[in-house]
Specification:
Number of strands: 20
Strand content: 15-25%
Shape: globular
Number of helices: 16
Radius of gyration: 29 Å
Helix content: 25-40%
């Protein structure tokens, strides 16, 4: 190897290969040099992370992206589990921080028809709604009074009553509006679907366990207390959700007027900026910290054509057993937190089915509408997802469209005042208008590509290779089922923690356990860290080159 200096640079030339020095001197711009990389641990880890994200984005099918996210963890990711109807005290700051949502209180949702048309629809629907509400009211009273066994009065729960009312209201509105608004006739209605969402959030304060883990990895002492990333896994089950083939249009922010302090009664209730909630949720909110495989399911499977949400309706029966000393304002904030998490999780699942993941930013906004009710009090929400990538590293290719997600909310308001003599007393037409606006809002086709990160296959059902298609389908089902792994998670028994770790009284015993060998199988074992199914000798190929193959192929994505 010899070198030639050209304009303060060296051109390396192997022995036995000629090079034109004059050509390099005359055209220095044609010489390309590799980028200078920072070899420190932090930048090196960041480059590896971005390379992994790029590999996941380049996968062609939805199911392969799900498998690719879970490749680094055989036993799943350590995640905070958030459930739809479990709302701890003062939960709104955590919900806003983990979803990066700015909450605005509005007087009413935008009305997509004129006031005259809206009033005509209300007059037509009111008699049907009155019959429905009166029937459910009488049925509740009869069940609570007539059934008495051994001094035990059986009465339906708030959840059962709210579910019945929601189903009847949805049936009435669809039946009366589908003829004039064809998108409702084309929509798909799901009852109590399964909603899951999985995403990462940066900015939580490091715990003592995190600091000890960083010490084991020989990180600098000044970085031991840096903020850490936490995975969030959401589980929800709305009462009803309505889907369509086309997405909802972007929300007209100019029509959403923020409520005044006179109508809300408090400036704090008027607008909620995104807080910086960095406390440990395991301690302050008592959230379970479990290992879960990261999957996002918006209530249907990837091969469904209706992949965009129109409306989801939820119940809030948890308020029935909520301590009254929390106050009405905290009860209202709990409903806001439930709506924010439910809307964000549903939109994350929809974005995942369009090829976007927690590792890759969305390229256009997603819009959703939601209603939370107990049958009498109704709250309406409109949510716009602008970003879903909350990692510390934000690469230039996937910058968010907007810095925050936005949720517009209305205060919980009574649909009617009372029911007397089988008649509704005190209808609230404003609630009926908001209810109609959620159904009348028509989805529209977008003028851009909806799935820029998906290939021609889109889903694994379109893969031509039979073995690969069946294998990927089986692997995806196993991940989404959340069944325990074939090999159970390794654990440290109590006697080992006492006699081997805390006091070290068994020095002469051979060191064979993973914690004695400085191994971390929970975080080091990958999803593909196993062989394929064993092939018995009689089923092996007779070809001399392949008959020694004892295990079947695996088709994990290259992540």
């Amino acid at each position: 190897m010899w070198s030639v200096r050209v304009s303060k640079h060296y051109v390396l030339c192997p022995i036995g290969r000629s090079i034109s020095i004059q050509r390099v001197l005359n055209n220095e711009s044609s010489v390309e040099y590799p980028p200078i990389l920072d070899l420190k641990p932090g930048p090196s880890k960041l480059r590896l992370e971005l390379e992994t994200h790029e590999k996941i984005r380049n996968l062609h099918t939805i199911e392969e992206k799900t498998i690719g996210i879970n490749m680094p963890r055989y036993y799943g990711w350590q995640s905070f589990v958030v459930k739809d109807k479990v709302i701890p005290y003062d939960f709104l700051p955590f919900a806003q921080t983990t979803t990066k949502t700015k909450l605005n209180l509005v007087e009413t949702l935008p009305n997509y028809v004129s006031n005259e048309v809206s009033q005509q629809l209300i007059d037509r629907i009111k008699p049907h709604l009155e019959d429905c509400l009166v029937f459910e009211h009488n049925r509740t009273r009869s069940r609570g009074v007539m059934k008495n066994y051994n001094n035990f009065i059986e009465s339906p729960s708030t959840n059962e009553v709210a579910k019945s009312i929601v189903e009847q209201v949805n049936r009435i509105l669809l039946a009366n509006l589908s003829a004039e608004y064809p998108h409702l006739f084309e929509a798909q209605v799901d009852y109590e679907p399964r909603i899951e969402a999985f995403w990462n959030v940066h900015g939580f304060a490091a715990t003592k366990e995190d600091e000890e883990m960083r010490k084991k990895k020989n990180e600098p002492e000044e970085n031991l207390k840096d903020p850490v990333d936490r995975w969030i896994h959401y589980f929800g089950q709305p009462t009803i959700q309505i889907r369509h083939k086309l997405p909802l249009p972007i929300l007209p922010t100019n029509k959403l007027t923020v409520a005044t302090s006179q109508s809300s009664g408090s400036d704090k209730f008027q607008e909620y900026d995104v807080p910086n909630y960095d406390y440990d949720p395991k301690i302050y909110l008592k959230l379970p910290y479990e290992r879960r495989h990261g999957v996002s399911i918006p209530g249907f499977w990837p091969n469904d054509d209706h992949k965009f949400g129109l409306l989801s309706i939820h119940t809030n029966e948890y308020l029935e057993n909520r301590p009254p000393n929390f106050g009405e304002e905290e009860h209202q904030e709990a409903i806001h937190a439930q709506a924010i998490l439910a809307s964000f999780a549903w939109l994350v699942g929809q974005a995942h089915y369009q090829g976007f993941t927690a590792c890759n930013e969305i390229t256009y906004p997603f819009v959703n509408q939601s209603i939370i009710t107990n049958g009498k009090l109704w709250s309406f929400y409109a949510y716009q997802l602008n970003t879903m990538r909350f990692f510390k590293s934000q690469d230039e290719i996937n910058r968010p469209l907007e810095p925050n997600n936005i949720c517009w909310a209305t205060k919980a308001t009574e649909l009617y005042h009372d029911i007397k003599d089988n008649r509704i007393v005190g209808w609230n037409d404003n609630v009926l208008k908001d209810m109609l606006s959620c159904y009348i809002n028509t989805p529209q086709a977008r003028d851009h590509e909806l799935s820029p990160y998906l290939g021609e296959e889109n889903v694994i059902a379109n893969i031509d290779d039979n073995k690969r298609r069946a294998w990927l389908h089986d692997r995806h089902q196993r991940l989404t089922s959340h069944r325990p792994r074939h090999h159970l998670e390794p654990e440290i028994y109590d006697w080992e923690r006492i006699y081997k770790i805390k006091f070290e009284t068994r020095q002469f015993e051979p060191r064979r356990r993973f914690f004695e060998l400085d191994q971390d199988p929970l975080n080091e074992r990958r999803l593909d860290g196993h062989l394929g199914h064993y092939i018995p000798r009689k089923f092996r190929n007779e070809n001399l080159r392949t008959r020694r193959k004892r295990f079947e192929n695996t088709y994990y994505p290259d992540v």
